[in-house]
Design a protein that fits this description.
about 100 residues; mainly alpha
Length: about 100
């Protein structure tokens, strides 16, 4: 629901005589349904999984049992072509560094 839809709904409810506290209660979003909460839980889960050094398949499986990730979302790349570009640049740099060290 967009912010404008929420504001419109709130104004309509107030115009119909509903109390302000009742309007706010209807518009309240449970914290577990907000983007910020989801990002925080994902970050915390990643930190906990990484705390012992390696992220195991069991930890990834446990995460996926708790969070539903649509198949269409798993194929998306956050950084697009940027990661590929940097990986290739690092590979070229490493090859160049090894060549310099072998002289």
């Amino acid at each position: 629901m967009s912010i404008w839809k929420r504001i419109s709904d709130a104004l309509a409810a107030l115009a119909q005589g509903e109390g302000l506290s009742a309007v706010f209660e209807k518009l309240r979003t449970p914290p577990e349904r907000t983007i910020g909460f989801t990002i925080a839980v994902i970050a915390l889960g990643a930190k906990m999984a990484k705390a012992d050094g390696l992220v195991t398949r069991d930890e990834v499986t446990a995460f996926r049992q708790v969070f539903h990730i649509p198949a269409s979302e798993t194929q998306k790349r956050i950084f697009g072509r940027g990661c590929t570009h940097f990986r290739r640049a690092i590979t070229r740099f490493r090859q160049h560094a090894l060549a310099l060290c072998s002289r």
